[in-house]
Amino acid sequence: MHWDKVDFDEFEPCRSGLEPCSTGKNGKRNLISIASADEDPLPTDLASYPYEESRVYDLSVSAAASADLPVFSTSGGMSRRVVVLERVKYLIRSRPNGSEAQFGFAIRLLLTVSRLDGKMSLKLPVIAASAQLNMLEAKWQLQVHGLTSEEISAAIYPPTDLDVETFVYAKESMEKVIKAVHASSTKFTPVLIALRPPANLVERHAEEALGRTAALDAIKEGRSLMTLESKLASMPARVLDAAVDMYKAVVGGDVGPAESPPLSARQAARDLLRGTDLRL
Questions:
Q1: CB-based contact 211:203 (threshold 8 Å)
Q2: Domain limits at 70?
Q3: pLDDT tens across 215-260, in order?
Q4: Is residue 262 in a domain?
Q5: What is the largest CA-CA distance in the chain?
Q6: Which of 176, 197, 218 is the endpoint of a domain?
Q7: Are 214 and 228 in contact (CB under 8 A)?
Q8: Are residues 215 and 180 part of one domain?
Q9: Helical axes 199-220 vs 263-273, angle rounded to 10°
């Protein structure tokens, strides 16, 4: 990886279970960094942060909001996705509850994308070209966590529609910030940039995600709630509970458990699944 250049082909999907963190509007997610500093102060020299990565998150709107990441206005409602491409440098601290905390800095290009097909590449040039062809809508903004300077502030654009022209601006903006990392005028203040929950929490999230996805697939295929419950009868209770909750949230309370979901609910489920075919 050439540190001062941005090659979006080098950005790899994040490891399973990793959750981005942000200071956000109120900084609640970043309180852990203060606690860590009280217990064992974080170093302030970049040489003490051994890990460097270029990585991509593909997040739902709700997951992005829970991480204090901005979600920009595009069409698509809850079927929108938030794609985060980030260059990070960090160290790892283990937490008492078994979670893994990453502290350092993050240079993030945040995209809110509508109509993102589940089979589409998350590489920025592909998304930009698709937006140019009106296959989807996307807005982007650059955010920097843990680094401050006048040069960095000047390189940050307000939320901007993505197309092949503004793709160039996005890349240039990110490269300007990256080049400013080691400048004498840049101040580095380590912050929490990502968390990996304990293994049992990852398992819970996976089971809940399975249940919600199964519910959406059942709605898309026109199956009743009763049929869904029958198919999931042998699954863990958490899977079934999440499936029932999602089914009722999308279909509404006016449809009986033995009735098929209305066409509007089937279309909503299809949009949320983004073309995923599960064959459950």
A1: no
A2: 8-197
A3: 999 999 999 999 998 899 888 878 888 898 889 888 887 888 889 9
A4: yes
A5: 68
A6: 197
A7: yes
A8: no
A9: 140
Listed residues 197, 220, 246: the one ending a domain: 197
Tell me the residue type at 191.
Answer: V
Residue with tokens 């979600």: 71
The answer to whether position 140 is within a domain reads: yes
H or E element at residue 70: none
Q: For the segment 77-116, what is each residue's pLDDT rounded down to a tens digit?
A: 556 788 888 999 999 988 777 778 899 999 998 888 876 5
How many angstroms from the chain centroid is the CA of residue 124?
15
Tell me: the pLDDT tens digits for 121-135? Answer: 667 777 777 777 677
Contact 100/94 with Cβ under 8 angstroms?
A: yes
Token couple for 254: 């006016």
pLDDT of residue 39: 61
Strands 12-13 and 51-60: parallel
- How is residue 260 written in tokens? 């098929």
Residue 279 belongs to some domain of the structure: no
Residue 30 lies in a domain: yes
Strand 81-94 vs strand 137-145: parallel, antiparallel, or unpaired?
unpaired
pLDDT digits (tens, 9 = 90+) for 152-180: 999 888 888 888 788 888 888 988 999 99
